[in-house]
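Researcher: We're teaching a course module on how sequence relates to structure. For the next exercise, students receive a sequence and then see the predicted structure as tokens, so they can try to spot secondary structure elements on their own. Here is the exercise chain.
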Amino acid sequence: MNPEAFLSYSLRAQTHGAAITRVMAATLAAVDPYLAVTSNIRLDGTSLWIGDARYDLGYYRSVWVVGAGKAGFPMTQAVLDVLGERVSGGCVVVKDGYAPPRPGLSPIECREAAHPLPDERGIEATLRIASILRDLSSEDLVTFLCLFSHVIHEFTSVFSFYEQWARLFASMK
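Model: And here is the predicted structure for the students to work with:
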């Protein structure tokens, strides 16, 4: 982010105006969802690094991406930019208006839904994510993205969130 984009007339007049704009730009860059993902994942041959955790992609049959939240589109785009054709598919649900008209996340489905109150589209998207997860095995790697705040309403409107995750992890043993 260019600090000069924040340099308004009033900040230009301030002694520390340029410094303030640098802080503003750094703050926004630090919370940019795309940069948050790309700065924490990398591909090194067949090794996927997520932070300090290493995953040998040669071990996994496929890589899936699922998630929900307002930052879902840029975070999913970041995963695709790092992993490319290694991603088999997935589904991410975002708030209405938080994805471009033609999202271009193939092979990952990008679905829009109401927020903060769930609607039928959110419930359908949640069922789609549950369907993807239900069909996976221990040979599949799943990347979960942006499962925050009001997304829980979507999940709990369909099934008990905690029970579903407990069943999912128990089935992967």
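Model: If you want an answer key for the exercise: The radius of gyration is 19 Å. The chain has two domains: 1-31, 33-171.
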